[in-house]
Amino acid sequence: QVQLVESGGGLVQAGGSLRLSCAASGSDFSINAMAWYRQAPGKQRDLVAIIRRGGIRNYADSVKGRFTISRDIGKNTAYLQMNSLKPEDTAVYYCNAAVNRPPLTWEYTYWGQGTQVTVSS
């Protein structure tokens, strides 16, 4: 069993910054990738950023150049640094982790409960 807990959301004015954290806890697992998704009211949940094994990162076009995803392997924690925030960034942000659970060979996916980010104009 793996649990993800997000933190760092809040209310910020346009142009401001927030840093989200996602801490994974449990035992006997290894992380293949960690990602951040977001979902605004009435819209689908979309990928924002992902960091894969080896440190390879990808971003949605809408956040490229403004957001940075990083990971502390020793702490099993992912971060999302969000700069130059816009009102359209307002959403619930969810952490996602794809993990291995040896000796099982298939990949498991876990979700956090989400943290609200609100950007005022």
C-alpha-based Rg, rounded: 14 Å
Strand content: over 45%
Number of helices: 0
Kindly report how far apart the N and C termini lie: 40 Å
Molecular structure report:
The N and C termini lie far apart (40 Å). The protein has strands spanning 2-7, 10-13, 18-26, 30-39, 46-52, 57-59, 67-72, 77-82, 91-100, 107-111, 115-120. A hairpin with a 6-residue loop joins strand 9 (91-100) and strand 10 (107-111). By secondary structure, it is mainly beta.
What's a concise summary of this model?
By secondary structure, the chain is an all-beta fold. The chain is 0% helix and 60% strand. The protein starts with a strand and ends with a strand.
Task: Provide keyphrases for this structure.
single chain; 121 residues; mainly beta; 7-stranded mixed β-sheet; 4-stranded antiparallel β-sheet; 11 strands; 0% helix
Please specify the SSE layout and strand pairing.
Layout: E1 2-7, E2 10-13, E3 18-26, E4 30-39, E5 46-52, E6 57-59, E7 67-72, E8 77-82, E9 91-100, E10 107-111, E11 115-120
Parallel strand pairs: 2-11
Antiparallel strand pairs: 1-3, 3-8, 4-5, 4-9, 5-6, 7-8, 9-10, 9-11
